[in-house]
Amino acid sequence: METFTEFIDTIDNSDHQSRVREVLQWVSDTFPQLEKRIAWNQPMFTDHGTFIIGFSVSKKHLAFTPEEAGISHFEDDLKAANIDHTKGIVRMPWDQPFNYELLKQMIEFNIHDKAAIETFWWPAKR
Fold this sequence. Notes:
Elements: H1 5-9, H2 14-30, E1 35-39, E2 42-47, E3 50-57, E4 61-65, H3 68-73, H4 75-80, E5 84-85, E6 90-93, H5 100-113
Antiparallel strand pairs: 1-2, 2-3, 3-4, 4-6, 5-6
């Protein structure tokens, strides 16, 4: 978690800091094979050099960003759980429980989906 300490320390709200720390620790514990890094001023997890999931914060939510394919694949689950999202970002409000099960499924999907990918992002043409 040392990789993310500086990022977490920049969050003004201590409750939000705790949530971010908890979620990032959960990802680290659940997927110990993933590498931790800060890129584009955001905490991210990668696998064999390819992007798996990133996180960002705002006043209203903690967001995570898998590849667009992951969001598209789980579109029905996101809608059923009434989780705000776009094709590139999933927003979890601070005042609601964090959906770890869906996050786990999305990370597992991305790990599998990008197993043979050698670039950081999916190539432009899929």
